[in-house]
């Protein structure tokens, strides 16, 4: 097919789409056949094929969680989605080898440039499979593994199998089961004991096709005393039809290890983003989720940490921006399972127009533990009277030797405030961006520079779009 | 004409007429004072000119150097050169004074041009020193937790940084202690000159001891009923507004 170089361009960086031919297409709908097709294409061992088929049954048995979550889930038509699409490419180690249409997409998203500037490694996934994967040579010498999930399970089965599906069991929820059945792509990372990776590793997930579901699966293991920061970015063009993104991300931080996982998603508003993310922190280990959710039609995402070892620390810093017609249902889970563990949750949500954001938290500290601490802060900012925000904190802290702090606030950007700023010469959109940036400022300070700049830019785009 | 020229301006709030055929001209280079009892529409004038959407302009013109402001967005009016120091300035949580003023200046620069940070901070600090505002305030959120007087000083700081062609100061003197009143007046006087026209809304002639106005106007029920020199303010102070009211009743009887 002829490439059309510049169709469908809009204001936002991710909203464009080049026509692409796919060599492998699992077709519409989900059945055992689909799952077998994926396992065949990937030439997977029987254990993983069985794992997928079992997950499919769990997915089919589990009802949609509409008893607590949005009824909008009912509008996902699972028969109208394509579950696997690829050009059959192997991930290239240089950008030159990446197929042209895919390369153009990533160049436009600025990925090769970011890699040159500040990243230790990049994996760029296009629909179901990675098109590019590369890590700095010195990391390979240190024994760091940074590959796609398929390559991880083929080449490093001894590590992969030990941790895969252990933090998030297949049946955790309907969408983790779906991912387990059809997963493709995502990263497999192993950091050997004591290795501290200074620059971030980055994955970029790009949905290019219409009626498509992206189901990446990421597993990151930081061995004792190791440290790593992983960042993911994601975009999709704006299609009329719905697109599904349902990832599973498992983190394992062994004794004294530190993992920081940063997400800045910028989904177009046709995407259902239903993601399960959880980490396991052993003794004195630290897991920190930084989660920025912008865009999508419905996002359901509650990153969590199981604090399994003594003195383990868990943190979720999240920002959700619900624009007109969008619903951000986000939150955090902290499961304390050892003494002296501590967790911190700071969630900030912004609702614009008819946008809606909800915070769902779960903090669990059983009675027999001592000297555990949790701090939870949820702040909501409403811009415009139609906006809606809900908080479901669910803090279950037992025992007198543990402490918990919970604060919640709702504030509004008033018309007077916007007028005041406009009187100083700022446009309405600039005034709104400034208020939003002011609201999230103290949190963004915790982010690596490059990501706070990106986030600021995304917020500006979103505000410009919202005032039309 | 180089002036802020308001002609027969009619303004409604929620359908109720507040300004009634209001006319006033403040030529560039002059300082005028506007006085009048509570509720006569002084702040309404300021906000309507600044383009506040709740203030519906049902008739008349407001010309800024000949160009009509009526119907423009508030930010367009601001960038056209009209600054308003608010009677009740808004708080903007999380946005520092330094960043706020910087964004406001940036909004006036041509596309693609960036503000020079070092020169900007130098100027900001100079003006803060002149207004006796502690430098620590640069990192404080705009007006958040400020005392009444601090808010007013911050308004003048913004005016000095943005250098508007015209400014309306709505009761900038209220809430200021004696020293602050002097400092703020010095700030306003420093900006005085052929390139700026200023309208000062005040209740107290005391301010006019520090900022000598070229003209004083008295407002009553949505329009100006008397104009004169500085001595008019003294007369008001002495006699109160009943005197204006009586004169007006006699004239319309
Ligand atoms: N937003 C509003 N909604 C309803 N009424 C308003 C609003 N703003 C002003 N008004 C009314 O319009 C009239 C004029 O008010 P304005 O604030 O202009 O008076 P002012 O001359 O500035 O008074 P003051 O000296 O007390 O500051 C008052 O009766 C006031 O109650
Ligand atoms: Mg007033």
Provide a brief overview of the structure.
The complex is a heterodimer of chains A (468) and B (253). Chain A has 468 residues and is α/β, with parallel strands linked by helices. Chain A has helices at 32-41, 46-61, 100-108, 111-118, 137-141, 149-155, 157-163, 174-182, 415-423, 428-444, 449-467; strands spanning 24-25, 85-86, 121-126, 129-135, 145-148, 187-191, 201-206, 213-214, 217-222, 227-235, 243-245, 248-253, 258-267, 271-281, 286-295, 298-301, 304-307, 313-322, 327-336, 342-352, 356-365, 373-383, 388-392, 395-397, 403-413.
What can you tell me about this protein's structure?
The complex is a heterodimer of chains A (468) and B (253). Chain A is an alpha/beta fold. Chain A folds into 2 domains: 291 residues, no CATH class; 52 residues, no CATH class. Chain A is built from 11 helices and 25 strands. In chain A, helix 2 packs antiparallel against helix 8 and helix 6 crosses helix 7. The N terminus of chain A is likely disordered. By secondary structure, chain B is an alpha/beta fold. In chain B, a hairpin with a 2-residue loop joins strand 11 and strand 12. Chains A and B meet through helix 9 and helix 10 of A and helix 2, strand 7 and helix 3 of B. The structure holds adenosine-5'-triphosphate and magnesium ion (MG). Magnesium ion binds next to helix 1 of chain B. The site of adenosine-5'-triphosphate has 13 residues of chain B, from helix 1.
């Amino acid at each position: 097919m002829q490439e059309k170089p510049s169709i469908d361009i809009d204001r936002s960086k991710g909203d464009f789409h080049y026509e692409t031919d796919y060599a492998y297409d699992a077709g519409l709908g989900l059945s055992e056949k689909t799952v077998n097709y994926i396992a065949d294409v990937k030439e997977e061992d029987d254990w993983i094929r069985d794992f997928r088929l079992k997950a499919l049954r769990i997915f089919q048995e589990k009802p949609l969680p509409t008893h607590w979550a949005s009824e909008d889930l009912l509008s996902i038509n699972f028969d109208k989605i394509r579950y696997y699409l690829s050009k059959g490419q192997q991930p290239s180690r240089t950008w030159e080898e990446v197929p042209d249409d895919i390369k153009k997409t990533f160049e436009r998203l600025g990925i090769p440039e970011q890699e040159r500037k500040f990243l230790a490694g990049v994996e760029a996934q296009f629909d179901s499979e990675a098109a590019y994967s590369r890590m700095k040579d010195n990391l390979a010498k240190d024994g760091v593994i940074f590959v796609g999930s398929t390559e991880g399970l083929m080449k490093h089965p001894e590590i992969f199998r030990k941790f895969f599906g252990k933090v998030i069991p297949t049946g955790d929820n309907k969408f983790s089961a779906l991912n387990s059945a059809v997963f493709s792509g995502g990263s497999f990372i192993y950091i050997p004991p004591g290795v501290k990776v200074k620059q971030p590793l980055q994955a970029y997930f790009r949905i290019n096709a219409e009626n498509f579901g992206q189901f990446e699966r990421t597993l990151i293991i930081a061995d004792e005393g190791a440290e790593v920061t992983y960042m993911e970015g994601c975009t999709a063009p704006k299609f009329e039809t719905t697109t599904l993104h349902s990832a599973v991300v498992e983190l394992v931080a062994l004794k004294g290890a530190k993992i920081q996982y940063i997400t800045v998603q910028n989904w177009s508003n046709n995407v259902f983003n239903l993601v399960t993310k959880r980490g396991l922190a052993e003794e004195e280990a630290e897991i920190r989720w930084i989660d920025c959710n912008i865009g999508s039609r419905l996002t359901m995402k509650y990153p969590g940490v199981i604090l399994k070892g003594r003195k383990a620390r868990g943190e979720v810093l999240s920002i959700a921006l619900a624009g007109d017609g969008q619903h951000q249902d986000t939150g955090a889970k902290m499961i304390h399972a050892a003494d002296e563990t501590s967790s911190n949750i700071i969630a900030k949500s912004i609702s614009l127009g008819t946008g809606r954001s909800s915070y769902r938290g779960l903090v669990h500290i059983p009675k027999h533990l001592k000297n555990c601490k949790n701090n939870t802060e949820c702040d909501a900012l409403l811009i415009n009277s139609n906006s809606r925000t809900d908080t479901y904190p669910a803090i279950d802290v037992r025992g007198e030797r543990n402490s918990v702090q919970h604060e919640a606030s709702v504030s509004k950007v008033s018309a007077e405030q916007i007028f005041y700023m406009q009187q100083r010469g700022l446009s309405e959109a600039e005034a709104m961006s400034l208020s939003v940036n002011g609201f999230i400022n103290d949190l963004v300070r915790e982010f690596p520079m490059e990501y706070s700049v990106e986030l600021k830019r995304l917020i500006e785009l979103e505000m410009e779009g919202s005032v039309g | 004409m180089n002036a802020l020229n308001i002609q027969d301006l009619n303004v409604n709030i929620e359908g109720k007429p507040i300004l009634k055929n209001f006319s006033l001209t403040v030529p560039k280079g002059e300082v005028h004072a506007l006085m009048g009892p509570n509720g006569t529409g002084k702040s309404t004038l300021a906000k309507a000119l600044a383009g506040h959407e709740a203030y519906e302009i049902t008739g008349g013109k407001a010309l800024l150097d000949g160009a009509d402001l009526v119907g423009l967005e508030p930010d367009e009016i601001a960038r056209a050169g009209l600054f308003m120091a608010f009677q009740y300035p808004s708080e903007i949580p999380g946005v520092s004074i330094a960043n706020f003023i910087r964004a406001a200046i940036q909004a006036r620069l041509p596309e693609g041009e960036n503000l020079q940070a070092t020169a900007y901070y130098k100027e900001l600090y100079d003006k803060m020193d002149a207004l006796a505002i502690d430098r620590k305030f640069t990192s404080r959120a705009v007006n958040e937790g400020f005392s009444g007087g601090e808010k007013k000083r911050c308004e003048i700081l913004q005016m000095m940084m943005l250098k508007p062609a015209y400014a309306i100061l709505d009761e900038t003197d209220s809430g200021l202690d004696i020293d602050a009143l002097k400092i703020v007046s010095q700030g306003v006087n420093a900006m005085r000159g052929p390139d700026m026209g200023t309208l000062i809304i005040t209740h107290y002639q005391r301010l006019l001891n520090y900022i000598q106005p070229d003209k004083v106007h008295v407002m009553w029920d949505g329009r100006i009923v008397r104009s004169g020199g500085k001595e008019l303010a003294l007369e008001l102070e002495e006699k109160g507004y009943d005197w204006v009211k009586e004169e007006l009743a006699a004239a319309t009887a």
